[in-house]
Amino acid sequence: MIFAACDLGGTNTRAALIDETGRILSRVSQSTLQSSADALIDSVIRLITAIATEDCPGLAALDGIAVAVAGTVDSISGTVVTSPNLPFADTPLRDRLSAAFGRPVIIENDALAAALGEARFGAGRGAGDVVMLAIGTGIGGGIVVDGRPYRGTAGGAGEIGHMVIDPAGPLCACGRHGCLEAMAAGPAIAARARAAVKKTTDTAILEIAGEDIAAITAETVGRAAAAGDPLAQGILEAVAEIIGVGAANIANLLNPAVIILGGGVMTGDKIILETARRVVRDTALAPNRDASIVAAALGGDAGLLGAASLCLK
Ligand SMILES: [Zn+2]
Asked: How far, in Å, from the CA of 73 to the mean position of ligand 1?
């Protein structure tokens, strides 16, 4: 079987042909068009058509088409209700694509698609109940229950990044204070590092950032920590304690077999994974503390593979 999957993100639009074992047969990527919903939908149609006609016997030979999209998806109506990074608002994406291709098309939220991809083909393979956190500029989440996506009543489930950890904490983009995302995503890590280097210059963070405090990012901190810098390691440990609290909350709420930590902040990181694992083991209730806390295995392909997996159903 061959499926066409598309991952429609705020920055890049990617498409791939994927077989039923999760093998990517070919792929193509381009910058996401932001001018209008119509232009963006047309670009998705062109991208999928191109990959299916160049690398496959054609659209008619495909066994399914699925699109993961960075926005809230109403799976009943097939609309993208809202999106922070795409020009969609109550956009009937599924029907527009189905009409263009003359066949059913599946659409799904990208974070949930990534969780499904990891659950089926990646770090959660073999486990039915899986929760994934994607820690990057924000913290996205996806919940898989008994192998199936958990969307909630209107497609809004899985907003794990907006779980409040500290009501007296920093203001979040959602308007509340102390959300997991506001305390532990990439910008929070960078903010901690910028504050810390004002008190001491004895750290590799500044050197890696070219002696420019404003240039410090979460990646800078990660690189310094990997090089053995104690200040950077301490920052990641402090943030990981917070991520661990969030993971323990998830464990107590859902008792998943596996909690997957992914996203750009986790790339190459061991400190966050090990610290979060310890916090869950020490603080979640039995038997919830037995959840495996693991690193994502599929990287940026999780959304594509999760979208393809929806065609298998
Ligand atoms: Zn929030």
From this structure: 19
In angstroms, what is the span from residue 157 Cα to ligand 1's centroid? Answer: 14
- Return the CATH architecture of domain 125-296: 2-Layer Sandwich (3.30)
Sign of the alpha-carbon dihedral angle for 62, 18, 97, 54: negative
Closest CA to 47 of 19, 80, 14: 14
- 252: CA distance to ligand 1 center in Å? 20
Ligand 1 mean position to 58 CA, how many Å? 43
Q: How far is the CA of 244 from the centre of ligand 1 (A)?
A: 17
Matching CATH topology for 2-116+301-312 and 125-296?
Answer: yes
CA 54 – ligand 1 centroid, Å: 43
CA of 93 to the centre of ligand 1 (A): 27
Helix (H/G/I), strand (E/B), else coil: 281: helix
Tokens of 271: 């400190």
DSSP string, 29-89: EEEPP-S-HHHHHHHHHHHHHHHHHHSSS-GGG-SEEEEEESSEEETTTTEEEE-SSSS-E
Q: What is the pTM of this model?
A: 0.93
Sequence spans of domains, the chain: 2-116+301-312, 125-296
- Amino acid, single-letter form, for residue 78: G
Topology adopted by domain 2-116+301-312: Nucleotidyltransferase; domain 5 (3.30.420)
Would you write out the chain's pLDDT as a tens digit for each of its 313 residues?
Answer: 999 999 999 899 999 999 999 999 999 999 998 899 999 999 999 999 999 998 888 899 999 999 999 999 998 899 999 998 899 999 999 999 999 999 999 999 999 999 999 999 999 999 999 999 999 989 999 999 999 999 999 888 999 999 999 999 999 999 999 999 999 999 999 999 999 999 988 899 999 999 999 999 999 999 999 999 999 999 999 999 999 999 999 999 999 999 999 998 888 778 999 999 999 999 999 999 999 999 999 999 999 999 999 999 7
Report how far ligand 1's centroid is from the alpha carbon of 174 (Å): 4
143 CA from centroid of ligand 1 (Å): 18
Distance of CA 172 from the midpoint of ligand 1 (Å): 5
